[in-house]
Amino acid sequence: MPEPVVHIEGVQELARDVVVIPNRQVQLVPNIGIIGGGHSVLVVETGMGPRNAEKVLEFAADFAKGRKLYLTTTHFHPEHAFGAQVFAGGATFLVNREQAEDLKVKGPGYLEMFKGLGEPVARQLEGVELAEPDVVFDQEYDLDLGGRMVQLRATGRAHSKGDQVVKVPDADVLFTGDLAEAGQFAIFPWFPPYDTDVSGTRWLAVMQRLAAEGARVVVPGHGEVGGPQLLADVRDYLELLRDETWVRRDSAVSEQTIVEEISALMIQRHPEWAGQEWIEKGVGCLCSEHPA
Ligand SMILES: [Zn+2]
């Protein structure tokens, strides 16, 4: 596994005063957003661990040029949120309530699990202390950056229990976190009995809504920034995954056979997508959600 390091390189301007530090296709590095307004700047995602987050904070402070800093994260997973401690004192950290609970309840377990993913990941996680958010809101929060409102919107359980999306309406930019990825199969963190929060059916419902709303610019959790088609692609994948799983479940096909058949089908359909191992997890999740 390559070193999950954030490089402040190839920073893309998506709209006036809205940029993304791209993940450059490096696994366990998220796309990181920075959104500016008249008096404040919001950072979306921290990168994994304090050393990555320090780089992000330094870049954000430079970008802000004295404006007040805020931080939010799309969900509690380590590469998205496990650098928040670095922002303490320098930025106001705000998240939706279910994400705050995820961070508190599941954060320590994920820290240990991710340290087990290999030396490069463990190195970046060294010194992580799980941060306490400064502001916790229920479902929605409208953040005034000065002449620009940003909408933080919890979606309800989907990729995790506490997902949220971040919208910049005046620029029509949407940060989806891991609800949408570009160039890879949807990440189902389906690890029974330890973690079964991911829900294929709820995730599909969220993507149906997001795809219907659309956005000019869509920043996925990982992979290249795209347009509204990216939302439709994830929706269509999840829908097909559900339908193909359930139709086999209806005829009492074994889960192992379903995994084999659907993996072959999906790889044939999306030969260029990475993360083929997530298809099996998705099938497992949707089998558990099959209406008996
Ligand atoms: Zn995630």
UniProtKB/TrEMBL annotation:
It comes from the Bacteria. The keyword Hydrolase applies. The keyword Transcription does not apply. Keywords: Hydrolase. InterPro entries: Metallo-B-lactamas, NDM-1-like, RibonucZ/Hydroxyglut_hydro. One of its GO terms (molecular function) is hydrolase activity. Residues 29-222 form the Metallo-beta-lactamase domain. PANTHER family: ACYL-COENZYME A THIOESTERASE MBLAC2, METALLO-BETA-LACTAMASE DOMAIN-CONTAINING. This is MBL fold metallo-hydrolase. It comes from Streptomyces lunaelactis.
